[in-house]
Amino acid sequence: MSLEVHCDMGFAGGGWTLVQSTNGGSCTPATETAGTVTLGSCAYMPSAALTVLAQGSTTVQVRSASGSAAPTAYIASATALPMQNLRMGLITNANETVGDTVAEEAAWTVVGDPGKATSQGRTPQSILTFTCSVAGEMWPAVYRACGNGADGFVLDVVDNVSFWNWGITPRVNSSMEVYVR
User: Fold this and answer.
1) Mind spelling out the 3-state secondary structure of 55-124?
2) Which helix (H) or strand (E) holds 86?
3) How many helices (H) and strands (E) does the chain have?
4) Using an 8 Å Cβ cutoff, are 120 and 167 in contact?
5) Closest CA to 178 of 130, 134, 139
6) Is 62 within 8 Å of 52 (Cβ atoms)?
7) pLDDT in tens, 82-94
8) Model pTM above 0.85
9) Residues 13-46: pLDDT tens digits?
10) Which residues, in sequence order, are bridge partners of residue 144?
């Protein structure tokens, strides 16, 4: 299998490979296509290629689309579980204990406030809590804070949205980039 890859060699030590890119308004997770992923492409890396790439990767990061600029709002895996899930072609928050807020939030580092949770009186980490099962959800689903109700992060084909914060209306799909290294 041959695929072109886009790499970010300048951010946080470099070595990041772009594996999914949404472009916001005209692109939803359900309309993305498998194939070559470039910035704003509305594409994701095919599952077979992703699982191979993930075998040699240790970190997954979801950013607000920033193009070539250093991202200012993003989440990055802080434990091995999100990457282990990608290695199996699963959504990154699969195999977490549902409703265990401490574990759900500890699996990720939040930089900035991508979901603007502080405007709702919550911590930025609160976008990661979920109370319903995501078992069986597969790539290109990335994260689904279902049942959060207040400010859950969703980049998922089931809900067909790319939102940093479910609680902020009007709900408009956000441009996002998913990288691994």
Assistant:
1) HCCCCEEEEECCCCCCCCCEEEECCCHHHHHHHCCECCCCCCCCCCHHHHHHCEEEECCCCCHHHHCCCH
2) helix 81-87
3) 3, 11
4) yes
5) 139
6) no
7) 999 999 999 999 9
8) yes
9) 788 999 999 887 778 888 999 999 998 899 999 9
10) 154
**Dist CA 22 CA 85 (whole Å):** 21
* Residue spans per domain, the chain: 7-180
Q: Hey, is 1 helix, strand or coil? A: coil
* CA distances, 4 to each of 35, 43, 170 (Å): 9, 12, 36
H or E element that contains 7: strand 7-8
Quick check: helix, strand or coil at residue 53? helix
Q: Within a 10 A sphere around the Cβ of 45, how many other Cβ atoms? A: 26
Question: What CA–CA distance (Å, rounded) separates 156 from 143?
Answer: 6
